[in-house]
Structures are given as C-alpha cells and as structure tokens.
Amino acid sequence: MASRFDQPLGVAEPALQLRARRHELLASNIANADTPGYKARDMDFREAMRQATGPSPEPLRATHAQHLQPDSPSLAAGDPQALYRVPHSPSLDGNTVETHVEKAKFAENVVDYQATIEFLKSRVQKLSGAIKGK
Question: Hey, what's the signal peptide range on this chain (predicted)?
Fold first, then answer.
C-alpha cells in the first residue's frame, strides 16, 4: 500500500474524528431518553467518511437571484449532518429515543472507535520504525 507523505495517518484520522462525533450524538440520545419531545439523532458514517476522504465538493452557488441560498456555509460545503432516527415505536411524549437501540449503537461505535485507535497506533509504530531505520 502506497503511503502519501502529506497524510501519514491516512483515513484513520478523519475516521477517528467522525467516530468521536457519532459518540457525542449517541451519548446525547441516551442522556435525553426521558426528555419529552427529544428527537434521537445519528449520522450516516459511510456518507460522512466519503465526504471526508473524497475530493472536496464544489460549494453550492446561486446562479440566479431567485435560487434558494444555503442556510449556512456548512451546508454549502456538504458537511455531514446529524440525522434524526426514525423510532420503531415512538413514545406518547414525542421522545424518539429507544434506549436499547441507542445502547447497542453506542457499544458498536465504541468497538469501531477502539479499532480505529489500534489502527492508528500500529501506523504510528510503523512510521516510528521507518524513521529510526528499523
């Protein structure tokens, strides 16, 4: 596998950042499981990784005065957005958090986060060995 010198950690760096962001979303869902009206959120990790590792998309631009303008620069740049989760059985108070689903997603994300950390750790050890001439 060819290594690029300008990105020595490869895709692991944005993957770790996105896993951390997803971790925050899932933790927020669990913390608000009893908050009336709270809507559970998550992210499409594959799409977020595609956006993070692919070529930067050209920002949206209006070519006519009547075209809709993006609400914010992040929407124009195509940043991954937190999506609302559709519940299997919504509660009467409008809360869409299903604790068992959120805990399972959280545990899955923890395992993926740890795997990314291990990958980064081995990558740093390889780079360190190359620098030291081992």
Answer: none
**100-122 pLDDT tens trace:** 999 999 999 999 999 999 988 98
Q: What is the pTM of this model?
A: 0.70
Q: How far is CA 78 from CA 8, 67, 72, in A?
A: 25, 18, 10
Report which residue type is found at 112.
Answer: D
Nearest to 26 by CA among 37, 14, 15, 42: 42
User: Per-residue DSSP letters for 93-126?
Assistant: TS----HHHHHHHHHHHHHHHHHHHHHHHHHHHH
Q: Is residue 117 part of a domain?
A: yes
- Six-digit token string for 51: 């956006």
**What is the count of structural domains for the chain?**
1
